[in-house]
Amino acid sequence: ELSAALDVAAYRIVGEAVTNAVRHADASQVVVSLTVTGTILDVVVTDDVSGLPAEPVPGLGLGSMQLRAEELGGELTVSATSAGVAVVARIPVAVLESTPLVGGPSPAGLA
Q: How many degrees, rounded to 5, is the angle at CA 70 between CA 77 and CA 90?
């Protein structure tokens, strides 16, 4: 189970990264991957655009992705790869022990 805040952050980061790849880089292929390894959620969005500008100017979209990752104790990187450009957000997974699953037992004292 991921927290609601992490769900929303991952969704918004993916949406913005895909939008940037299509709108600004004219990508023809975008691949999205979300993986939880231990206590880290990796959100990876790659495209087939060749490289980044020599001096990229961060815009509102990149800034909002970075802020979303950092608000949850994570980090965001954007880098050129051999296949294109990769946006990677690494965010710790928070365990919410006091939040019951839907249909599960309610916390003590709450009925």
A: 50
DSSP notation for the chain: ---HHHHHHHHHHHHHHHHHHHHTS--S-EEEEEEEETTEEEEEEEE------SS----HHHHHHHHHHHHTT-EEEEEE-SSSEEEEEEEEPPP-TTSPPTTSPPPTT--
β-bridge pairing 40-47 and 75-80: unpaired
Cα gap 91→2, rounded to integer Å:
11
Identify the residue whose tokens are 């991957």. 33
- pLDDT per residue, tens digit, the chain (111 aa), is 789 999 999 999 999 999 988 887 778 899 999 999 999 999 999 998 876 665 666 678 888 999 999 999 999 999 888 888 899 999 999 654 444 444 444 444 444
